Amino acid sequence: MPKAQIVGTGGYQPGEPIDNAMIESIVGPLPEDVLAGVSIQQRYWMIDPATGEHLDSNSGMAVKAARSALESAGLEAAQVELIIVATGTPDYPLPPVANLVQEALGLEECATMELRSAGSGPVQALDIARTWIEQGRITTALVIGSEAISPALAPVFLKTEPAKIRMRDRVPLYMFGDGAGAIVVRAGEGEGLRQGTTRAIGGSRKAGIHAIGGGTHAPILTQQRSKRMVDLRVDVVGAGDFTPVMVTKALADSLAAADLAAEDADWCLIPEGNVGWMLDSLNEAGLLTPEWLALQGRIFDDLAQTGACGCAAVPLFLDHAWRTGMVKPGQKVLLIGVEATKWIYAGIACDWTAEAPA
């Protein structure tokens, strides 16, 4: 049976980094303790902060990340047989971003899928790609996570004095960024991706993040009369309370699915896994499990430099770790994606085989 191996990654974030000083100038300050808890120093937006003009697009960022990943793998776009895109902020309701990427890459025919599971989506996609490759259905898959969140943030501050922006509306602007990450998965021999897992544990729980507008939840004329056509609502308190519970479950479930002991994992990618508020919450809730304790010093992300970028987070962070030499052949790497909309997690482990690109 062929083994699904990660053979290349790529990442892209638009424009110049936007630091906290710039965010403060357009939306006002956050209390020092809240800013420290956010733990983000900069982020990237596909809009011009001064005008709201779009300088890129979700699919445009996805294509750039895809091309970077294919180049790192030494492959041509024509070799891709399956494209899976995870995004919560598509260019259009239809056609899917996956097909816009397909068109831009010049592929007349290939299998495509799009997942709307936000931060957990790229990890779910890796498990789908693994399954198809092990079944012998395909040889090469392209997994992409792409997010364009800044257009939903712009109505909060454009033509509004910072002093008039409510504190709860400021927090998402300090948190979120745009970008795309891509992973090439290819059939090989030896080691590679292990069995993954995914679960939604917020069946009756209030959504931690709610993106409202542009859908069919209400008549279009009613939406047009709303204060904001698109509104991104973040339950900061709810997310802070339940995210540690979800991450703890994700960690234990992912290790079990991969038949991997925490002590044997060289690295574990968990978005926000090293953030102060997360560790404090885990400790206060009694959730510092043996798995967490065993992985201390080996949990990584790149949140401080990218911002919280939803579907792009896991592939972007992985790309950074691989290209900087952190992740090396022979290591066991656990990837965990989590999503606070309806509390979804996904995890997958990889016995890493790819040499870092020159």
Automatic annotation (TrEMBL):
Transmembrane segments: none annotated. InterPro entries: ACP_syn_III_C, ACP_syn_III_N, Thiolase-like. It comes from the Bacteria. Residues 114-192 form the Beta-ketoacyl-[acyl-carrier-protein] synthase III N-terminal domain. Residues 255-338 form the Beta-ketoacyl-[acyl-carrier-protein] synthase III C-terminal domain. One of its GO terms (biological process) is fatty acid biosynthetic process. Pfam families: ACP_syn_III, ACP_syn_III_C. GO terms for molecular function: 3-oxoacyl-[acyl-carrier-protein] synthase activity. This is 3-oxoacyl-[acyl-carrier-protein] synthase-3. Keywords: Acyltransferase, Transferase.
